[in-house]
Automatic annotation (TrEMBL):
It comes from the Eukaryota. It comes from Podila minutissima. GO terms for cellular component: early endosome membrane; Golgi membrane; retromer complex. Keywords: Cytoplasm, Golgi apparatus, Lipid-binding, Membrane, Protein transport, Transport. GO terms for biological process: endocytic recycling; late endosome to Golgi transport; protein transport. Residues 1-24 are annotated as: Disordered. It holds the Pfam family PX. The keyword Phosphoprotein does not apply. This is Sorting nexin-3.
Length: 157
């Protein structure tokens, strides 16, 4: 049979384990230890007739050491994403690279299609950029996301 003291002692132990130090405002509102925010936004369509294409703005905010810049903005087109995904697959055979949003052959410049593609590209980038093996093992990940002068020709894949 449990004595009242042993019950009180167990209750005290439970209570003392749950207590932690008071949080400061920096703890609550400060920058998290590791954060990565990637946003694909502001699609713009360029060109005329058969030479039309849409590019997308990629905004990155992070404190992860694999990325050289804390904040960056670049523009990429869908064909850049296709190349980037192919390179990631070749570089990282142990990682399952997610698919890109599908190719669209008709009505590809409607607002609805552009928005669906933007959402899919954002989801894709958030997954690959957040993967620890790709952050440390890819030669093109940070440059694709952050370097405004990025060129596929520089990388011989």
């Amino acid at each position: 049979m449990n004595s009242p003291n042993s019950v009180q002692h167990r209750a005290f132990d439970e209570h003392s384990r749950l207590q932690s130090k008071p949080q400061t405002l920096d703890d609550i509102y400060g920058e998290p230890e590791n954060f990565l925010e990637i946003e694909v936004r502001n699609p713009q369509t360029h060109g005329v007739a058969r030479k039309m294409f849409t590019d997308y703005e990629i905004v990155c905010r992070t404190n992860i050491p694999a990325f050289k810049l804390k904040s960056s903005t670049v523009r990429r087109r869908y064909s850049d994403f296709e190349w980037f995904r192919d390179v990631l697959e070749r570089e990282s055979s142990r990682v399952n690279i997610p698919p890109l949003p599908g190719k669209v052959f008709t009505n590809r410049f409607t607002d609805e299609v552009i928005e669906q593609r933007r959402e899919g590209l954002e989801r894709f980038l958030q997954i690959v950029a957040g993967h620890p093996l790709l952050q440390t093992g890819s030669k093109v990940l940070a440059a694709f996301i952050q370097d405004p002068s990025f060129s596929k020709d520089y990388y011989h894949y």
